[in-house]
Input
Amino acid sequence: MKLTEIGKGFYHFKSAEPVLHRNIYIKRFVGPDDLSGVMVFDPGAKSDAAALWEALEEVAGGVAHVDLVFVSHQDPDVASNAKFLVDNAPRSLVVASVDSWRLLGMMGIPDRRFYLLESWGEEPLEIKRTGHRLHPVPAHYCHFRGSMMMYDYESRVLFSGDLCAGVNTRGGEGIYADEASWAGISLFHQIYMPSKRAVQEAIGRIVALEPPPEVIAPQHGDVIAGAFVEEFLGRLARLDVGVDLVKLKDPEKEAGVAALNAFFDGLKAGSMALYEAMWEEVTRRNEFTTLFKIARGRIVDMKVSVANAVVYLCNVTDKAVPREERDRVKVVLAVALEERGVEVPSFCLLGTGTQPDIFAAPTAEGKSS
Output
């Protein structure tokens, strides 16, 4: 467990999963006369309990000093430790939306230990003991009806929950996003966010904050800071996600599905061994999710854009195919795409590529695009 201070009194540590890790944040408020308060943001899965205990010892002098547990939504990867904290911190309250409370209560947390954000409205909250202000920011349907974000005015860190979260596509050490992080952010949102409109509504509430956040701290993926805050929010506002990608007749998607099936047909005709290596990787269960809907040995749909599907296949090639055969496989892919009018990303088809592998642990050798 490695703690990093990402803003004044705002600490971060993450779980060890190579593809979709969890970020857990702790904020320590220090007021007049050294009075202090401690808030945990999305306390994580059961497997994070030991690390959370250790982090609270370091930041707050122990779990008993926790005052507030903010839960963005009720999913077990973010909320499983809420009862653990309530049981060990006698004065703590769980801060959540009404929609989240209905499900979080099933963990056995008494109603009297909840603070429901709708009871206050969307105005800033004030911690009486220290005088610090927090601003709850709705993120309806991103990806849950009752999803909420929380802005800390002192550190100017916005805890964004699943909005701005991402799969790990950035190579190397560290916790901060760079350009290589965008592939994982777009992939995560295309699969888990319901619509562009829902994302745009949440982003509109973020840009209305004054002063604007300097850091966005999501529940998965990299911490976003500096110029990437505005850049990635702008890209997300334009990104097709969820139902935007599910259309009855989408010529681009139909062409992409046809091209990918032609690619696997061509691979099978040229080398059964290469076909089997690629197909096994594409169809196996991953830590994250499968990107394709498959029926009777054919791809019939995809959960992401055609461009992201092609990036993924290029990464699979670099992972599953011997180095001396990779260019051969990518040529077959390029031909299948070009024959059906699908754009071929150049970085995927030159040598071993420069994109990090979405489904492998980051390495020090990883390069950004």
Summary: DSSP finds twelve helices and 15 strands in the chain. Residues 247-349 form one domain. The first strand starts at residue 4 and ends at 7.
